[in-house]
Amino acid sequence: MAETHSLQDLRQQAAIASKVFVQRDYTSGTICKFQTKFPSELETRIDKQQFEETIQTLNNLYAEAEKLGGKSYLEGCLACLTAYTIFLCMETHYEKVLKKIAKYIQEQNEKVYAPLGLLLTDPIERGLRVVEISIYEDRSIGSR
Amino acid sequence: MKNCEYQQIDPRALTSPTATPTSTLPLANKNVQRQRRKWEVFPGRNRFFCDGRIIVARQSGVLPLTLGLILITSGLFFIFDCPFLVANLTVFIPVIAGVLFVFVVFSLLHTSFTDPGILPRALPEEAADIEKQIDNSGSSSYRPPPRTKEILINDQVVKLKYCFTCKMFRPPRTSHCSLCDNCVERFDHHCPWVGNCVGKRNYRFFYTFIVSLSFLTSFIFGCVITHLTLRAQGGNGILSAVQQSPASIVELVVCFFSIWSILGLSGFHTYLVASNLTTNEDIKGSWSSKRGAEDYKNPYSYNNIFTNCCVVLCGPMPPSLIDRRGFLPADEIPPVITTEQELPPFMAKNDTNMEDTCQDFALSCTG
């Protein structure tokens, strides 16, 4: 832990060598889901399983946000009955899950990715189009 | 056609963005010290109010007319017809009209002022990555490969098109609105009456608006007819009734002409909701089974009218993907590709690929 990058150090000192973009997977329709295919550029940096686990957890969280069920229908009907004024004061279920996702990404960055010289960008900052992974230059420490 | 050219901005070069035409506040770009919000440098053709909280299309269309007609007709109804009807029938008439009026106005304002599901444009690095993938997979012949990607959704082949303005492959059901110059998710149509695109995030507001407006116009129409009939029976015939309440004729005329179109539109959109289609798909006949011998089926439909209605109207509310009120990083120039330059298509550009230029122009003119 002492010799590896911390999230703070990474952002301030290291330079970005390249970026990898994990695209959306539309085979199940328009729901938010990312491809779990392991990008070749990350082969030397991270475990394939670790990466797939991260993406799969993200996909599950987005599925939870967009889940069609009793709760979401209730929220929708209530909103309709109040002429959509509750959207002005209440946080929607989707927004609550987005906060969870942001926390998960922060935690993954701190624990897993930053020590390996990588950084995940929250997909919401890229319009839910891609998961952007920044690969930082490996200057100070020896390679894995 | 409209302005559809772009100039790639090198994020390392020190080109400060020109005064954005999208900003309506006069001091937005003068003070360089103040931290700017992202809406101030938004590349699409939109206008923002209340410091980015409200978004409308650049051309407000006939929104003032729509609002004016609704307010005036309802106002005349409450002032001139309701007193008579309350006295002779029931007090519930203005109550029902009031509830419908509130629904109509709120849903109209929500439709007009909500982000319809605009997709932010691809940042330069992302765009470069996509270009690399296209070049790798395309043929090496002189003619550039067609920028489409075919994917399988629920066993149905769907073609994704590349958007030259936004520099990305459009997700399924997304379309680029040439009036607003934005890609909009689940694009339905650009409605001039509400002055905004109708897309994924505001379709339910739009539907509520037209349905409640149908009820309101029918209700006012019925009540005004009842009012004039009662007056005519009680007094000296229909002419004197009209003389006593001339405002009613105005309401009758407005409602009569509105009812046909609004009721028709409500019916059409009810059909779209029940089959989980968009106006765009219906007009293009994307999933019509009459095209060719192949069996085109809508891959997004749940094949159940009730489920489709629930999903479209009561599904989870997706968030706005354009972070309007976020702050721009202090020293960074916003790394987006803008289309604000009003250049004629063949002027000198930084883009070295001439074919790209011609293709851009041709494709962006067709939206």
Automatic annotation (TrEMBL), chain A:
PANTHER family: GOLGI AUTOANTIGEN, GOLGIN SUBFAMILY A, 7, GOLGIN SUBFAMILY A MEMBER 7. It is found in: Golgi apparatus membrane. InterPro entries: Golgin_A_7/ERF4, Ras_palmitoyltransferase. One of its GO terms (cellular component) is Golgi membrane. Belongs to the ERF4 family. May be involved in protein transport from Golgi to cell surface. The ZDHHC9-GOLGA7 complex is a palmitoyltransferase specific for HRAS and NRAS. Coiled coil: none annotated. Residues 20-132 form the Golgin subfamily A member 7/ERF4 domain. It is a lipid-anchor. Its main location: Golgi. Keywords: Golgi apparatus, Lipoprotein, Membrane, Palmitate. This is Golgin subfamily A member 7.
TrEMBL record, chain B:
Pfam families: DHHC. It is a multi-pass membrane protein. GO terms for cellular component: membrane. Residues 159-284 form the Palmitoyltransferase DHHC domain. It is found in: Membrane. Its main location: membrane. PROSITE patterns: DHHC. Keywords: Acyltransferase, Membrane, Transferase, Transmembrane, Transmembrane helix. GO terms for molecular function: protein-cysteine S-palmitoyltransferase activity. It catalyses: L-cysteinyl-[protein] + hexadecanoyl-CoA = S-hexadecanoyl-L-cysteinyl-[protein] + CoA. The keyword Membrane applies. Its EC number is 2.3.1.225. InterPro entries: Palmitoyltrfase_DHHC, PFA4/ZDH16/20/ERF2-like. It is an enzyme of class 2 (transferase). The chain crosses the membrane at residues 62-80, 86-109, 205-229, 249-274. Belongs to the DHHC palmitoyltransferase family. The DHHC domain is required for palmitoyltransferase activity. This is Palmitoyltransferase.
